[in-house]
Amino acid sequence: MQNPEITAVILAGGQARRMGGVDKGWMELNGKPLIRHVQDIISPQVPRVLINANRSLDAYSTLSCPVIADLDAGYQGPLMGIATGLQHATDPWGLFVPCDSPYLPRNLAERMLEQAEKEGADIAVAHDGVRLQSVVALIKRDLLESVKADLAAGGRKVERWYAKHRVTQVDFSDHPEAFTNVNHRDDLAGLQKMPKLLGFAAWSGTGKTTLLKQLIPRLKSRGVRLGVIKHAHHKFDIDHPGKDSYELRKAGADQMLISSGQRWALMVEQDQGDQPSLNHLLNRMDHELLDLVLVEGFRHNAIPKIELHRASLGKPLLCENDENIIAIAADTVIELPRDLPQFDLNQPESLVEFIIQYKNS
């Protein structure tokens, strides 16, 4: 959905010292420059997109967006990029994003604007659940003179300028990997190795685990290297009284790793009610050994999902309120609120073909 009050500005004006001076916007991820990944995510959300760049201007001009250089030369950092963007914005709000974050949320603008208006804030800044993402921000254009004055006084720190205004932090901890960016060459290699995520969303009793038990061996037989993350809604234990590992963990070990020649497992104790994020769990996996991670549960996370639906349960369709659902598997043909691929929940083979196409896309 487009937000007509917002001009987006992709910040690509830095020197990239930690990258050896390489223009990050043109580094490729999966055969496409990082700037294109960001542009493809942001453009559907707003009516206007600007690119703030200080070099590679001819290359950036091929992207069908106006290219704006910093108001003052000298690579003065993101605060200058913000001033430049607000100077050229034609809407009440400016949405600022970095050129090296290829997994930004597809509802970023909507969520930022909704909270800014609700809180009466002049600035909304994204928070990933761990830290503030200071260069992912929605800022009122009315603050242009303020940011110019701060720069003229020698200001360079974005956070210090934010502190002078009404700021709200927008929680995006539900969106794994949304703010992963590239600061070193190894970061890009890590992104390229990141397995794809595919969630399965359904009401209780629909049969998520049953379907996964059918899909996993079929996908494995097709050569797909699979990981699975499952969310449990109750207390569980994978170790048992009397076992050495159980007794050592219960004696007070915060983390217990047990291994054999066939497998190893790490058990981590945590405070009750402190649910680890999907991003945290994903980062415990060895990405180099996986092509695809299937996620059962975590229904509210903004990852691509297949919805499972049984008409006999009498539950509403989740895809009506979840734009991240990319297909439906149901036990009967149903009328959908939008155009989505539809599969027979009791015929997993056709769903296997769809999943493999998704993995390879």
Q: Assign the structural class, choosing from mainly alpha, mainly beta, alpha/beta, alpha+beta, or little secondary structure.
A: alpha/beta
CATH architecture of the largest domain: Alpha-Beta Complex
What is the N-to-C order of secondary-structure elements (H for helix, E for strand)? EEEHEHEHEHEEHHEHEHEHEEHEEEEH
Helix content: 25-40%
Lateral arrangement of strands in the main beta sheet: 5-4-1-6-8-7-9
- Estimate the mean pLDDT confidence: 87
The beta-strand count equals 17
Portion in beta strands = 15-25%
Q: Overall 3D geometry? A: globular
Q: What is the number of helices?
A: 11
CATH class of the largest domain: Alpha Beta
The CATH superfamily title of the largest domain:
Spore Coat Polysaccharide Biosynthesis Protein SpsA, Chain A
N- to C-terminal separation? 23 Å
Low-confidence stretches: none
Main β sheet profile: 7 strands, mixed
Annotated CATH topology of the largest domain: Spore Coat Polysaccharide Biosynthesis Protein SpsA, Chain A
The total domain count is 2
Radius of gyration: 23 Å
What report would you give on this structure?
27% of the residues lie in helices and 23% in strands. The chain is of the alpha/beta class and 361 residues long. It folds into two domains: 6-189, Spore Coat Polysaccharide Biosynthesis Protein SpsA, Chain A; 195-360, P-loop containing nucleotide triphosphate hydrolases (Rossmann fold, 3-Layer(aba) Sandwich). It has a seven-stranded mixed beta sheet with strand order 5-4-1-6-8-7-9, sandwiched between helices. Strands 11-14-10-15-16-17 form a six-stranded parallel beta sheet. Strand 7 and strand 8 (132-140) form a beta hairpin. The two termini are 23 Å apart. The model has no long low-confidence stretch (mean pLDDT 87).
